[in-house]
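Schema walk-through. Below, the input block comes first and the output block second. Nothing else is stored per chain. Lengths vary across the set, and this one has 176 residues.
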Amino acid sequence: MKYCAFLRGVNVKGTNMKMADVCQVFKEAGMQDVGSVLASGNIVFSSDKSAEDLKPVLEKAMSDHFSYEAFLFIKSQEETETFRKNIPFEKNDGLHIYSFVGNPGVENVLMGEFEIASKTENEKAEIVGEIFYWQVPKGNTLDSSFGKVLGKKSLKDQFTSRNINTFEKVLKKMNS
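--- output ---
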């Protein structure tokens, strides 16, 4: 089965790694057809094992190799397609749309945080299925009240986020 592992906190705040090295760790852990998409920690690969079985193996391999506490979220190709298909917002050149990959129920935690955060104009959030989507004006991602919540240490093992354009690139790689 084809998967994408979405790594949390890669190449930000001093956790730097080359994607070629990350791919090598995945290969050494027994994954096949390994490739990366962008430098933000999106690793496409194949395995006969379930995502639940792969997560602890790959987190340990990454943690051991790079000497950091690795968090990753594994989605099948079908699940990854869902992130792109269910976007509740119209694309707009002035806005970013993010989707959040994470543990079951994290969408409700994120919505609760979003509801108490102060908003900028055109900033919206919506849950579709079990996926949390966030729309924010370009240039406001890290400055927004909700954007600051995303860096909370208490949430670091719960989710990671990606711009919708990243999902499109991941799916293109999965389909090649």
